[in-house]
Design goal:
The strands form four sheets. This protein has a six-stranded mixed beta sheet, with helices on both faces. Helices cover about 30% and strands about 20% of the residues. Helix 2 links the parallel strand 1 and strand 2. It is an alpha/beta fold.
Length: about 400
């Protein structure tokens, strides 16, 4: 039974338990950078109160919406040929339509959870639309991406279905997003550099002629983490960092492995991690096109977050690796670069951040003290017969 089937089974069970209760009064909105698999809302019995707003990808003069059948092959071809690829935020009108649909479906409020504002202006479009919505809308900048965001949306959906208030739904979504870790490997930084998603660590990047970088999403930005000499070593190191993160967490864990153009490597990575941590199930899915457009072909990303379905009903923060220490010069031997940059295509905005001084472990990946900055922890995943599903990232 795969992830979607298990989700549908849980949703059917909850539906039986609450058969006499009206539908959720809190709607949930997100964007396609959440990487939720195709058919997820239906499987979660949430199609009536969940909306996913597609994010546009521009290849040459052609604009595609996330989810269109032509997008993925066109994007892969364009990147392979070195053609220009750009992304943009959805228009505020798209969010207005989503909020209006939820109001018509009987929702009296909504929680709108989106891709990091350091990577895109999507959350700004949602905020603008929320001002004129028919129902109160709480807009959340998740400060993460892909299934780091998707797990927060899933948690919000579960809470909304259970009858929680909008404030409670929003609080739990924030908790899951803050707990999430996104760690990823790219064969080349060219695509990220072209799109402006990374750029401040120029000195560090200048040494990457024959190096495979591992990066992390920290405080909503893409930050260089480690330098690995070969692709096989990068895959092994990524798996090791993931295992460290899982080992440092308490309670249930949700995990996902993303890929673009390299599904077999994603299966292999999930298998390696799953062998070491068989109790954690891994969802394997493509990176959303809006994220793959910046990460490039061959990307492997791992998202990990706590599971709100634990008996206590809340995230149990782990005490595992809280990140990697950043030396004053910004580079650790085969370790970390301190600076990260994120830009926004549609507004030409560049936001610069510095990872130095964040609560962290050390360059060797040793566990940090309990309670240290959960968002900067390495991504961990455990696999059990994972199967591929749809998904994406910006």
């Amino acid at each position: 039974m795969d992830w979607l089937e298990r989700l549908a089974s849980r949703a059917r069970g909850r539906q039986r338990e609450t058969a006499a209760v009206p539908g959720p009064s809190v709607g949930v909105v997100t964007d396609s950078a959440s990487a939720l698999p195709g058919g997820w809302a239906e499987a979660a019995n949430a199609a009536d109160f969940v909306r996913v707003v597609p994010m546009p990808v521009m290849i040459g003069d052609q604009i595609y919406g996330e989810g269109s059948a032509e997008l993925i092959p066109a994007l892969a071809l364009a990147m392979a040929q070195g053609h220009e690829v750009r992304t943009s935020r959805p228009a505020p009108g798209q969010f207005e339509a989503a909020y209006r649909e939820l109001a018509a479906a009987g929702c009296t409020s909504a929680v709108s959870i989106h891709l990091s504002g350091q990577l895109s202006g999507t959350v700004d479009s949602a905020r603008l639309a929320a001002r004129s919505a028919e129902i109160p809308v709480e807009v959340i900048d998740s400060a993460t991406a892909a299934m780091g965001l998707g797990f927060a949306v899933a948690a919000a959906t579960e809470r909304a279905r259970a009858g929680y208030s909008a404030a409670e739904v929003a609080a739990d979504a924030r908790s899951v997003a803050a707990d999430a870790t996104i760690l990823f490997y790219v064969p080349s930084l060219d695509q990220l550099r072209r799109g402006g998603r990374i750029g401040a660590a120029a000195g560090w990047l200048g040494t990457l002629l024959a190096v495979k970088p591992i990066l992390v999403v920290r405080d909503g930005m893409v930050v260089p983490l480690e330098r690995v000499r070969t692709a096989p070593k990068a895959l092994a190191r990524l798996a090791e960092l993931v295992q460290q993160d899982i080992a440092g967490r308490d309670g249930k864990v949700r995990a996902a492995v993303h890929h673009f153009g390299n599904a077999s490597e994603a299966e292999r990575l999930a298998g390696i991690v799953g062998a070491a941590a068989p109790e954690v199930e891994i969802l394997i899915c493509p990176l959303p096109a809006v994220l793959a457009a910046h990460a490039g072909l061959g990307v492997l990303a791992v998202a990990v977050a706590g599971d709100l379905s634990d008996p206590a009903g809340h995230i149990v923060q782990g005490a595992g690796p809280a990140g990697v220490g950043v030396p004053a010069d910004g580079v650790a031997a085969d370790g970390v670069a301190a600076d990260g940059v994120a830009a926004d295509d549609e507004v030409g905005r560049t936001d610069t951040g510095n990872a130095a001084g964040k609560p962290a472990g050390n360059a060797a990946g040793k566990p940090a003290a309990p309670g240290a900055a959960s968002r900067t922890r390495f991504a961990g995943t455990k696999a059990k017969g994972s199967k591929s599903s749809g998904g994406a990232k910006e």
